[in-house]
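Worked Example 4.2. Consider the chain below.
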Amino acid sequence: MSDETMTQTETAPETSAGAADTPLTENPAAGKPLDLEFLLDIPLQVRVEIGRTKMLVNDLLQLGQGSVIELQKLVGEPFEVFVNDKLVARGEVVVVNERFGVRLTDIISPMERIQQLG
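Applying the procedure from the previous section yields the following structure tokens:
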């Protein structure tokens, strides 16, 4: 092995380690910030859950217009907001221009979201 080959092999690990330290918002090849705006157009499924219950098929078939289904949540309890089936926030019901909405009262911390995965 020549001295020239040895020098190239020694410098390669330093170059790759430096690239690993580059922030994700920077393009290491060009040294320019990456355009992450394309992420803004990714569709997500947002679901607000007001409660849950279990029913027998027979009870479900007995439901009709005006039937009331009792949920396992209490009045005043916060609603849960899921994005792609992951809990991300809790909120309360609001009415805006005769439409229902949810005011977010608690955003789930990244640590809580990680604990949900396990």
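DSSP finds three helices and six strands in the chain. The mean pLDDT is 77. Compare this with Example 4.1 before moving on.
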